[in-house]
Amino acid sequence: MEQYDFGIVGLGVMGRNLLLNMADHGFAVAGLDLDTEKAAFLQKEASPDQKVFGTTSPAEFVSSLKKTRAIMLLVPAGRAVDAAILSLLTYLEEGDIVIDGGNSYFIDTDRRVAELASKKIHFFGMGISGGEKGARFGPSMMPGGDKQAYERLRPIFEAIAAKVNGEPCVSYLGNGSAGNYVKMVHNGIEYAIMQLIAESYDLMKRGLKYSDEKIQSTFEAWNNSELQSFLLEITAEVMKKKDDLTGLRLINVISDRARSKGTGKWTSQNAMDLQTPIPVIDAAVIMRDLSSHKEERIQASSRLIWTNSTSEVPSEEADIILKDAFHFAMISVYAQGLAQLHVASAVYGYELNLEDVARIWRGGCIIRAACLEDFRAAFSRNSSLPNLMLDDEIGGLLVDTQAGLRSLIKMAVDSGVPVPAFMASLGYFDAYRSAELPTNLIQAQRDYFGAHLYERNDQEGLFHTQWD
């Protein structure tokens, strides 16, 4: 056969939508799924003039693809990826390309790259962001793997990616697990921005006693300003939705136990391995975990009382404080995530271009936002910038909006409303701008109880003191 340009294993919503996106752009595509109905539904959804093929047979699927074969796996991360690779190996040949389009842990991707390289098959880890709608009409894609092999994939990926100012939101990012690593950090940033929005909502509702209508209009106004982002856009829509069962706003009948799939946790864990602080992302992960302790929180709410829960800030002043604080904290989140990518690139040899990362995040993905164009410009000015806060323009924005964040935290403390992500944003900023930190005392304590040695300001080397 050998007549199809690209194949996908796993014909759930994402896999099917990506194939139909490719077909819309004139590519002949094939899909494999063990579920007969899913394989048949792919062909049913395609228009008559599109070249789309669905099958349940791995042998038929692989033989239908043009050489060099390009196959994407869209199956759950973990064992399912290894099982899918194993099911294809019998039929693959040297030079073929396998792409994992799921949220696999980057260490697993490095292992698979090495295993398939021994068989002279290229393996790519590629983050895809944008959900089912993005897959159908234009996602942001983050591929990593062999640079030469990427040329086989580039025309297809650039055609189907979201576009911003005519530029496709996809780029070759680096070798090995670079693509999965960038997507992992993308998801950590996503956790943190969602937490900041949730804290803003909580402070408006419980601290400032805003009505649901006022909260909704506030988020909508923010999205129509320099804060424009996909997450604010959907938050404004979520706040409007009425519940079919009760007639109430749906947000008020949704449980506060938040779930997660672990990618935020991976981001925090690896940042600690790299000794790269990302405290806002850490706070977001912690708050999702804390949300699961519902029964304990109910008990604590009637015992651990704060009686002076008041906020006397006028509404107009509070609106300005909230907006400036969110602006500051959102920049801080991206700065922390991109700083982690800067360090990881050096440690893991990815050779990431952070201007490219910011560029492809501008459209299609969940964390797309107007500010990413400013971040792209910052890395264009200085490609080796270790932290966005050191850019004159971005740093100037933080200086200008910091008063709002400091005021928001005071309001939250007075109201007894938790804002750990906002607090972490300010703590990071104040620590990062401190030429001197109190960790000299920690060095002395470590040497006192464990003879762990310390460094001096006035001499080179390591020193120990007999403290007692």
Question: In brief, what are we looking at here?
Answer:
The protein has 468 residues and is an alpha/beta fold. 55% of the residues lie in helices and 8% in strands.
Strand percentage lies at 5-15%
Q: What is the makeup of the main sheet?
A: 7 strands, mixed
Structural class determined from secondary elements = alpha/beta
Number of strands: 9
Order of strands across the widest beta sheet?
3-2-1-4-5-6-7
Give the rounded overall mean pLDDT. Answer: 95
- Per DSSP, the total helix count is 19
Annotated CATH homologous superfamily of the largest domain:
N-(1-d-carboxylethyl)-l-norvaline Dehydrogenase, domain 2
What coarse outline follows from CA principal-axis ratios?
globular
Helicity range:
55-70%
The H-and-E topology, N to C, reads as EHEHEHEHEHEHEHEEHHHHHHHHHHHH
According to CATH, the fold-level topology of the largest domain is N-(1-d-carboxylethyl)-l-norvaline Dehydrogenase, domain 2
Tell me the CATH architecture of the largest domain. Orthogonal Bundle
CATH class of the largest domain: Mainly Alpha
Low-confidence stretches: none
Distance N to C terminus: 82 Å
**What count of domains describes the coordinates?**
3
Computed over alpha carbons, the radius of gyration is 25 Å
Describe, in plain words, how this protein is organized in 3D.
This protein has three domains: 171 residues, Rossmann fold (3-Layer(aba) Sandwich); 250 residues, N-(1-d-carboxylethyl)-l-norvaline Dehydrogenase, domain 2 (Orthogonal Bundle), CATH 1.10.1040.10; 30 residues, Up-down Bundle (Single alpha-helices involved in coiled-coils or other helix-helix interfaces). The chain has 19 helices and nine strands. It has a seven-stranded mixed β-sheet with strand order 3-2-1-4-5-6-7, sandwiched between helices. The protein has a two-stranded antiparallel ribbon with strand order 8-9. Strand 2, helix 2 and strand 3 form a beta-alpha-beta unit.
